[in-house]
Amino acid sequence: VFPPQLKLTNPSPVVEYMVQHFKPQIFGDRKPVYDGKKNIYTVTALPIGNERVDFEVTIPGEGKDRIFKVSIKWMAIVSWRMLHEALVSGQIPVPLESVQALDVAMRHLASMRYTPVGRSFFSPPEGYYHPLGGGREVWFGFHQSVRPAMWKMMLNIDVSATAFYKAQPVIEFMCEVLDIRNIDEQPKPLTDSQRVRFTKEIKGLKVEVTHCGQMKRKYRVCNVTRRPASHQTFPLQLESGQTVECTVAQYFKQKYNLQLKYPHLPCLQVKSIFKQIPASPLPIFQVCNIVAGQRCIKKLTDNQASTMIKATDENASYNLDPYIQEFGIKVKDDMTEVTGRVLPLWGVCVGGLQFLLAGFL
Protein backbone atom coordinates (compact mmCIF):
# COMPACT_ATOMS: atom_id res chain seq x y z
CA VAL A 1 0.00 0.00 0.00
CA PHE A 2 1.68 3.18 -1.17
CA PRO A 3 0.83 6.66 0.14
CA PRO A 4 -1.93 7.91 -2.18
CA GLN A 5 -0.30 11.33 -2.60
CA LEU A 6 2.75 9.66 -4.18
CA LYS A 7 1.54 8.59 -7.60
CA LEU A 8 4.31 6.22 -8.62
CA THR A 9 4.49 5.30 -12.29
CA ASN A 10 6.83 2.42 -11.46
CA PRO A 11 6.65 1.09 -7.87
CA SER A 12 9.06 -1.77 -8.66
CA PRO A 13 12.12 0.02 -7.14
CA VAL A 14 10.23 0.36 -3.84
CA VAL A 15 9.55 -3.38 -3.75
CA GLU A 16 13.18 -4.09 -4.66
CA TYR A 17 14.34 -1.87 -1.77
CA MET A 18 12.02 -3.80 0.55
CA VAL A 19 13.36 -7.18 -0.61
CA GLN A 20 16.97 -6.13 -0.10
CA HIS A 21 16.35 -4.45 3.27
CA PHE A 22 14.37 -7.34 4.76
CA LYS A 23 16.40 -10.10 3.09
CA PRO A 24 17.87 -11.54 6.33
CA GLN A 25 14.58 -11.61 8.25
CA ILE A 26 12.02 -12.47 5.56
CA PHE A 27 13.24 -13.20 2.05
CA GLY A 28 16.53 -15.06 2.60
CA ASP A 29 17.84 -16.55 -0.65
CA ARG A 30 14.47 -16.19 -2.40
CA LYS A 31 14.27 -13.97 -5.45
CA PRO A 32 10.72 -12.58 -5.51
CA VAL A 33 9.25 -11.30 -8.77
CA TYR A 34 6.76 -8.44 -8.88
CA ASP A 35 4.17 -7.58 -11.52
CA GLY A 36 4.32 -3.83 -10.87
CA LYS A 37 0.81 -3.78 -9.40
CA LYS A 38 -0.46 -6.00 -6.57
CA ASN A 39 1.10 -9.44 -7.04
CA ILE A 40 4.45 -10.76 -5.85
CA TYR A 41 5.57 -14.37 -6.39
CA THR A 42 8.14 -16.51 -4.58
CA VAL A 43 9.23 -20.11 -5.20
CA THR A 44 8.68 -21.07 -1.56
CA ALA A 45 6.37 -19.58 1.06
CA LEU A 46 7.56 -16.60 3.07
CA PRO A 47 7.80 -17.07 6.86
CA ILE A 48 4.91 -14.69 7.54
CA GLY A 49 1.98 -17.09 7.86
CA ASN A 50 -1.40 -16.19 6.40
CA GLU A 51 -1.77 -12.80 8.06
CA ARG A 52 -0.96 -9.47 6.46
CA VAL A 53 2.47 -8.07 7.27
CA ASP A 54 3.35 -4.39 6.83
CA PHE A 55 6.84 -3.24 5.88
CA GLU A 56 8.11 0.33 6.13
CA VAL A 57 10.51 1.15 3.32
CA THR A 58 12.68 4.27 3.37
CA ILE A 59 14.16 5.43 0.08
CA PRO A 60 16.67 8.29 -0.14
CA GLY A 61 14.95 11.20 -1.85
CA GLU A 62 15.84 14.59 -3.23
CA GLY A 63 16.77 16.36 -0.01
CA LYS A 64 14.39 14.29 2.10
CA ASP A 65 13.93 10.54 2.51
CA ARG A 66 10.64 9.13 1.29
CA ILE A 67 8.79 6.58 3.40
CA PHE A 68 6.49 3.95 1.91
CA LYS A 69 4.40 1.22 3.45
CA VAL A 70 4.21 -2.12 1.64
CA SER A 71 1.73 -4.76 2.80
CA ILE A 72 2.13 -8.46 1.93
CA LYS A 73 -0.43 -11.19 2.51
CA TRP A 74 -0.36 -14.83 1.39
CA MET A 75 -3.06 -15.44 -1.22
CA ALA A 76 -2.67 -18.78 -3.02
CA ILE A 77 -0.35 -21.41 -4.48
CA VAL A 78 0.31 -21.33 -8.22
CA SER A 79 0.80 -24.83 -9.60
CA TRP A 80 3.26 -25.53 -12.42
CA ARG A 81 2.04 -29.14 -12.43
CA MET A 82 -1.48 -28.11 -13.44
CA LEU A 83 -0.06 -25.95 -16.22
CA HIS A 84 2.04 -28.84 -17.49
CA GLU A 85 -0.91 -31.25 -17.43
CA ALA A 86 -3.11 -28.77 -19.29
CA LEU A 87 -0.50 -28.31 -22.02
CA VAL A 88 0.26 -32.02 -22.44
CA SER A 89 -3.29 -33.35 -22.29
CA GLY A 90 -5.08 -30.55 -24.09
CA GLN A 91 -8.21 -31.70 -22.27
CA ILE A 92 -8.33 -29.25 -19.38
CA PRO A 93 -8.29 -25.44 -19.44
CA VAL A 94 -4.91 -23.75 -19.12
CA PRO A 95 -4.71 -22.15 -15.64
CA LEU A 96 -4.35 -18.44 -16.39
CA GLU A 97 -2.88 -17.69 -12.97
CA SER A 98 0.06 -19.98 -13.79
CA VAL A 99 0.59 -18.28 -17.15
CA GLN A 100 0.50 -14.89 -15.44
CA ALA A 101 3.06 -15.94 -12.82
CA LEU A 102 5.39 -17.28 -15.51
CA ASP A 103 5.01 -14.07 -17.52
CA VAL A 104 5.85 -11.96 -14.45
CA ALA A 105 8.95 -14.06 -13.75
CA MET A 106 10.15 -13.61 -17.35
CA ARG A 107 9.59 -9.84 -17.24
CA HIS A 108 10.89 -9.02 -13.76
CA LEU A 109 14.59 -8.49 -14.50
CA ALA A 110 13.82 -6.48 -17.64
CA SER A 111 11.50 -4.22 -15.64
CA MET A 112 14.39 -3.42 -13.27
CA ARG A 113 17.01 -2.86 -15.96
CA TYR A 114 15.10 -0.99 -18.65
CA THR A 115 12.51 1.75 -19.02
CA PRO A 116 9.05 0.13 -19.18
CA VAL A 117 6.44 1.54 -21.56
CA GLY A 118 3.25 -0.50 -21.42
CA ARG A 119 4.36 -4.09 -21.95
CA SER A 120 7.54 -3.07 -23.78
CA PHE A 121 11.00 -2.22 -22.46
CA PHE A 122 13.36 0.41 -23.85
CA SER A 123 16.98 1.31 -23.16
CA PRO A 124 18.91 4.56 -23.75
CA PRO A 125 20.95 4.82 -26.96
CA GLU A 126 24.36 3.24 -26.42
CA GLY A 127 26.51 2.66 -29.48
CA TYR A 128 23.91 4.24 -31.74
CA TYR A 129 22.24 7.63 -31.97
CA HIS A 130 19.22 8.54 -34.08
CA PRO A 131 18.17 12.15 -33.41
CA LEU A 132 14.70 13.11 -34.58
CA GLY A 133 15.06 16.84 -34.06
CA GLY A 134 13.03 18.99 -31.70
CA GLY A 135 14.76 17.48 -28.66
CA ARG A 136 13.59 13.95 -29.50
CA GLU A 137 15.52 10.78 -30.28
CA VAL A 138 14.86 7.14 -31.18
CA TRP A 139 15.03 4.48 -28.46
CA PHE A 140 14.98 0.80 -29.37
CA GLY A 141 13.40 -1.83 -27.18
CA PHE A 142 11.48 -5.07 -27.17
CA HIS A 143 8.11 -6.52 -26.29
CA GLN A 144 7.84 -9.95 -24.76
CA SER A 145 5.01 -12.15 -23.57
CA VAL A 146 4.59 -15.77 -22.53
CA ARG A 147 1.87 -17.70 -24.35
CA PRO A 148 0.65 -21.31 -24.12
CA ALA A 149 0.96 -23.23 -27.40
CA MET A 150 0.12 -26.78 -28.48
CA TRP A 151 2.11 -28.72 -25.87
CA LYS A 152 4.52 -26.18 -24.37
CA MET A 153 4.93 -22.55 -23.35
CA MET A 154 6.28 -20.15 -25.96
CA LEU A 155 8.12 -16.86 -25.45
CA ASN A 156 7.02 -14.23 -27.96
CA ILE A 157 9.57 -11.45 -28.50
CA ASP A 158 9.28 -8.52 -30.87
CA VAL A 159 11.55 -5.51 -31.33
CA SER A 160 10.09 -2.03 -31.22
CA ALA A 161 11.16 1.59 -31.45
CA THR A 162 9.65 4.80 -30.14
CA ALA A 163 10.53 8.44 -29.55
CA PHE A 164 11.95 9.69 -26.25
CA TYR A 165 12.99 13.15 -25.16
CA LYS A 166 16.73 13.60 -25.12
CA ALA A 167 18.28 14.20 -21.69
CA GLN A 168 19.96 17.60 -22.02
CA PRO A 169 19.98 21.12 -20.55
CA VAL A 170 16.67 22.89 -21.07
CA ILE A 171 18.43 25.71 -22.90
CA GLU A 172 19.63 23.25 -25.55
CA PHE A 173 16.17 21.68 -25.69
CA MET A 174 14.66 25.10 -26.34
CA CYS A 175 17.14 25.76 -29.14
CA GLU A 176 16.22 22.47 -30.84
CA VAL A 177 12.49 23.10 -30.55
CA LEU A 178 12.73 26.67 -31.88
CA ASP A 179 15.41 25.88 -34.49
CA ILE A 180 17.92 28.26 -32.91
CA ARG A 181 21.42 27.26 -33.97
CA ASN A 182 23.20 29.41 -31.39
CA ILE A 183 21.62 30.80 -28.24
CA ASP A 184 23.81 33.88 -28.60
CA GLU A 185 21.78 34.61 -31.73
CA GLN A 186 18.77 35.17 -29.46
CA PRO A 187 19.67 38.46 -27.73
CA LYS A 188 16.01 39.46 -27.32
CA PRO A 189 13.15 37.88 -25.35
CA LEU A 190 11.13 35.18 -27.06
CA THR A 191 8.26 36.30 -29.22
CA ASP A 192 4.75 35.20 -28.28
CA SER A 193 4.73 32.63 -31.09
CA GLN A 194 8.08 31.20 -29.94
CA ARG A 195 6.92 31.02 -26.33
CA VAL A 196 3.67 29.27 -27.28
CA ARG A 197 5.54 26.79 -29.48
CA PHE A 198 8.06 26.04 -26.74
CA THR A 199 5.33 25.74 -24.08
CA LYS A 200 3.45 23.12 -26.11
CA GLU A 201 6.58 20.96 -26.30
CA ILE A 202 7.90 21.23 -22.74
CA LYS A 203 4.61 21.31 -20.83
CA GLY A 204 4.20 18.11 -18.83
CA LEU A 205 7.87 17.10 -19.02
CA LYS A 206 9.97 16.44 -15.93
CA VAL A 207 13.05 18.56 -15.27
CA GLU A 208 15.72 18.41 -12.59
CA VAL A 209 17.57 21.37 -11.08
CA THR A 210 21.35 21.48 -10.89
CA HIS A 211 22.01 24.48 -8.64
CA CYS A 212 21.61 22.56 -5.35
CA GLY A 213 24.69 20.32 -5.63
CA GLN A 214 23.94 16.61 -5.34
CA MET A 215 20.32 17.30 -4.38
CA LYS A 216 18.79 17.27 -7.86
CA ARG A 217 15.12 17.81 -7.21
CA LYS A 218 12.70 16.87 -9.97
CA TYR A 219 9.71 18.91 -11.05
CA ARG A 220 7.02 18.73 -13.72
CA VAL A 221 6.63 21.72 -16.03
CA CYS A 222 3.16 23.25 -16.07
CA ASN A 223 3.81 26.48 -18.01
CA VAL A 224 6.33 28.97 -19.37
CA THR A 225 6.21 32.53 -18.02
CA ARG A 226 5.41 35.43 -20.30
CA ARG A 227 7.99 37.68 -18.66
CA PRO A 228 11.76 37.04 -18.68
CA ALA A 229 13.73 36.11 -15.57
CA SER A 230 14.89 39.72 -15.20
CA HIS A 231 11.26 40.88 -14.81
CA GLN A 232 9.43 37.78 -13.51
CA THR A 233 8.66 38.37 -9.83
CA PHE A 234 7.34 36.24 -6.99
CA PRO A 235 6.62 36.92 -3.29
CA LEU A 236 9.75 36.24 -1.20
CA GLN A 237 9.48 35.97 2.56
CA LEU A 238 12.46 37.47 4.38
CA GLU A 239 13.91 36.22 7.67
CA SER A 240 12.17 39.12 9.40
CA GLY A 241 8.84 37.75 8.25
CA GLN A 242 8.27 40.54 5.76
CA THR A 243 7.19 39.57 2.23
CA VAL A 244 8.65 41.43 -0.74
CA GLU A 245 8.43 41.08 -4.50
CA CYS A 246 11.68 39.70 -5.93
CA THR A 247 12.69 38.92 -9.50
CA VAL A 248 13.95 35.45 -10.33
CA ALA A 249 17.28 36.87 -11.51
CA GLN A 250 17.75 38.79 -8.24
CA TYR A 251 16.80 35.76 -6.15
CA PHE A 252 19.39 33.48 -7.74
CA LYS A 253 22.03 36.17 -7.46
CA GLN A 254 21.35 36.74 -3.75
CA LYS A 255 20.55 33.14 -2.73
CA TYR A 256 23.06 31.15 -4.79
CA ASN A 257 25.46 33.84 -6.04
CA LEU A 258 24.48 32.74 -9.54
CA GLN A 259 24.44 35.33 -12.28
CA LEU A 260 21.99 34.23 -14.96
CA LYS A 261 23.61 34.22 -18.37
CA TYR A 262 20.35 34.74 -20.24
CA PRO A 263 18.07 36.80 -17.96
CA HIS A 264 16.14 38.05 -21.01
CA LEU A 265 14.61 34.61 -21.56
CA PRO A 266 11.54 33.29 -19.67
CA CYS A 267 11.22 30.92 -16.73
CA LEU A 268 9.51 27.60 -16.20
CA GLN A 269 6.53 27.29 -13.91
CA VAL A 270 6.85 23.92 -12.23
CA LYS A 271 5.24 21.78 -9.56
CA SER A 272 6.71 19.06 -7.43
CA ILE A 273 6.28 15.49 -8.65
CA PHE A 274 5.73 14.10 -5.14
CA LYS A 275 3.98 16.92 -3.30
CA GLN A 276 0.95 19.01 -4.20
CA ILE A 277 2.44 22.49 -3.85
CA PRO A 278 1.68 25.67 -5.81
CA ALA A 279 3.60 26.20 -9.03
CA SER A 280 6.72 28.35 -8.70
CA PRO A 281 8.95 30.04 -11.29
CA LEU A 282 12.41 28.71 -12.04
CA PRO A 283 14.93 29.87 -14.62
CA ILE A 284 15.21 27.52 -17.56
CA PHE A 285 18.95 27.96 -18.03
CA GLN A 286 22.06 26.85 -16.12
CA VAL A 287 19.87 25.16 -13.50
CA CYS A 288 17.43 22.85 -15.34
CA ASN A 289 17.91 19.63 -17.32
CA ILE A 290 15.39 17.42 -19.10
CA VAL A 291 15.06 14.20 -17.05
CA ALA A 292 16.11 11.08 -18.96
CA GLY A 293 13.72 8.28 -19.90
CA GLN A 294 10.64 10.31 -20.84
CA ARG A 295 8.69 8.87 -23.73
CA CYS A 296 7.31 11.31 -26.28
CA ILE A 297 3.54 10.83 -26.55
CA LYS A 298 3.02 13.85 -28.79
CA LYS A 299 2.53 13.38 -32.52
CA LEU A 300 5.73 13.28 -34.57
CA THR A 301 6.21 15.77 -37.37
CA ASP A 302 6.42 14.47 -40.94
CA ASN A 303 10.22 14.81 -40.91
CA GLN A 304 10.49 13.04 -37.54
CA ALA A 305 8.24 10.20 -38.73
CA SER A 306 10.38 9.81 -41.86
CA THR A 307 13.57 9.73 -39.76
CA MET A 308 11.99 7.15 -37.43
CA ILE A 309 11.17 4.87 -40.38
CA LYS A 310 14.71 5.16 -41.74
CA ALA A 311 16.19 4.39 -38.30
CA THR A 312 14.13 1.21 -37.92
CA ASP A 313 14.45 0.05 -41.54
CA GLU A 314 17.83 -1.63 -41.10
CA ASN A 315 19.04 -5.10 -42.04
CA ALA A 316 19.63 -7.27 -39.00
CA SER A 317 22.94 -8.50 -40.54
CA TYR A 318 23.08 -11.58 -38.33
CA ASN A 319 25.74 -13.23 -40.50
CA LEU A 320 28.10 -10.31 -39.86
CA ASP A 321 27.81 -10.70 -36.09
CA PRO A 322 31.20 -12.01 -34.84
CA TYR A 323 29.59 -13.76 -31.87
CA ILE A 324 27.17 -15.65 -34.12
CA GLN A 325 30.06 -16.53 -36.44
CA GLU A 326 32.02 -17.85 -33.45
CA PHE A 327 29.36 -20.51 -32.86
CA GLY A 328 29.08 -21.42 -36.54
CA ILE A 329 25.51 -20.18 -36.80
CA LYS A 330 24.12 -18.94 -40.11
CA VAL A 331 20.83 -17.15 -40.61
CA LYS A 332 18.99 -17.16 -43.93
CA ASP A 333 18.16 -13.77 -45.39
CA ASP A 334 15.00 -15.13 -47.03
CA MET A 335 11.65 -15.09 -45.30
CA THR A 336 10.23 -18.48 -44.37
CA GLU A 337 7.45 -19.81 -46.61
CA VAL A 338 4.57 -21.53 -44.88
CA THR A 339 1.58 -23.40 -46.29
CA GLY A 340 -1.76 -21.76 -45.78
CA ARG A 341 -5.33 -22.50 -46.71
CA VAL A 342 -8.16 -20.41 -48.10
CA LEU A 343 -11.25 -20.27 -45.92
CA PRO A 344 -14.61 -20.87 -47.64
CA LEU A 345 -16.71 -17.85 -48.55
CA TRP A 346 -19.09 -16.77 -45.86
CA GLY A 347 -22.48 -15.15 -46.20
CA VAL A 348 -24.07 -12.04 -44.77
CA CYS A 349 -27.76 -11.60 -44.14
CA VAL A 350 -28.82 -7.96 -44.59
CA GLY A 351 -32.05 -7.07 -42.85
CA GLY A 352 -33.29 -10.61 -43.31
CA LEU A 353 -34.04 -9.86 -46.95
CA GLN A 354 -30.91 -10.75 -48.85
CA PHE A 355 -28.08 -13.29 -48.59
CA LEU A 356 -24.76 -12.07 -49.99
CA LEU A 357 -21.57 -14.00 -50.56
CA ALA A 358 -18.53 -12.25 -49.09
CA GLY A 359 -16.68 -12.71 -52.37
CA PHE A 360 -19.12 -10.37 -54.12
CA LEU A 361 -19.16 -7.61 -51.48
Give an overview of the whole structure.
There is one protein chain. The protein is globular, with a radius of gyration of 28 Å. It has helices at residues 12-21, 23-27, 80-89, 96-113, 170-177, 192-202, 248-256, 302-312, 322-326; strands at residues 33-34, 40-41, 53-59, 66-72, 115-117, 120-122, 131-133, 136-149, 152-165, 206-209, 218-228, 233-237, 243-247, 266-272, 280-283, 288-290, 347-350, 354-357. The mean pLDDT is 84. It is α+β, with helices and mostly antiparallel strands. The protein is built from 9 helices and 18 strands. Strands 5, 6, 7, 8 and 9 form a 5-stranded antiparallel β-sheet that branches. A 5-stranded antiparallel β-sheet has the order 15-14-11-10-16, sandwiched between helices. The protein has a two-stranded antiparallel ribbon with strand order 1-2. Helix content is 24%, strand content 28%.
What would you say about this model in short?
The protein has 361 residues and is α+β, with helices and mostly antiparallel strands.
Notable traits:
361 residues; alpha+beta; five-stranded antiparallel beta sheet; 9 helices; ribonucleoprotein
Rg, nearest Å: 28 Å
Low-pLDDT segments = none
Per DSSP, the total helix count is: 9
Helix-strand sequence: HHEEEEHHEEEEEHHEEEEHEEEHHEE
Distance between the termini: 55 Å
Average pLDDT taken over every residue: 84
**Proportion of β residues?**
25-35%
Based on Cα principal axes, name the global outline: globular
Number of strands: 18
Structural class: alpha+beta
Share of helical residues: 10-25%
Largest sheet geometry: 5 strands, antiparallel
Give me the oligomer status. single chain
